[in-house]
Write a structure and sequence with these properties.
Length: 172
């Protein structure tokens, strides 16, 4: 049974990207990150940090229209998916399983925005869920916190790494 933990609120997009950048150093081939949160909460911002941490030569931008962006050239390939515009019955046509087989594409990091659109959950993943004030409130994203859940041992280690970043973490 996956357990959920909360990270403290991250004060800025820069702080969020730093967390992602550090996490990137721990990602392994076949990592799956599900990023849930309302519009504009910081999912793509997080993926930009992943890209930087992986050393991708191209900066991730929102794949809302392209649906999938593939970033090669870093320590691991980064496959960035945004399912916002799809319904669950349309998702299978993307063949996301191809990114997890290691056959069609080299195994890398799959980062999925709007995983709520998936018809089936991934068997193993790290799930980051932005919870807190709606965008546009007086405090904006300032009070937004990340809920971290992992399914599977390897992704559990990623969750533990994220949690361990915070106590006495002076650089954030
Ligand atoms: N923790 C934060 N504090 C302040 N601003 C932030 C934070 N995280 C992200 N932002 C800013 O919020 C804006 C929206 O972020 P982003 O595009 O990453 O959202 P998103 O969750 O991917 O949205 P969508 O659901 O539309 O894909 C960006 O301008 C970003 O710089
Ligand atoms: Mg986005």
């Amino acid at each position: 049974m996956p357990s959920a933990e909360m990270l403290p609120a991250l004060p800025s997009a820069i702080a969020l990207q730093k967390v992602a950048e550090r996490l990137a150093a721990k990602l392994f081939p076949g990592s799956v990150l599900c990023l849930s949160g309302d519009l504009g909460t910081g999912k793509t911002t997080f993926v930009k940090g992943l890209g930087r941490g992986l050393g991708c030569p191209t900066e991730p931008t929102s794949p809302t229209f392209s649906l999938i962006d593939e970033h090669f050239g870093g320590r691991l390939p980064l496959y960035h998916v945004d399912l916002y515009r799809l319904t669950p019955d349309q998702v299978p046509s993307l063949h996301l399983e191809a990114y997890g087989s290691g056959v069609d594409f080299p195994l890398g990091v799959l980062a999925v925005e709007w995983p709520e659109r998936l018809p089936h959950a991934f068997p193993e993943c790290l799930h980051l869920q932005w919870v807190g004030p709606e965008t546009g409130t007086e405090n904006g994203l300032e009070g937004c916190r990340l809920r971290v859940t992992a399914v599977g041992d390897r992704h559990g280690m990623l969750r533990d790494f994220l949690l361990a970043l915070f106590p006495g973490s002076p650089n954030l």
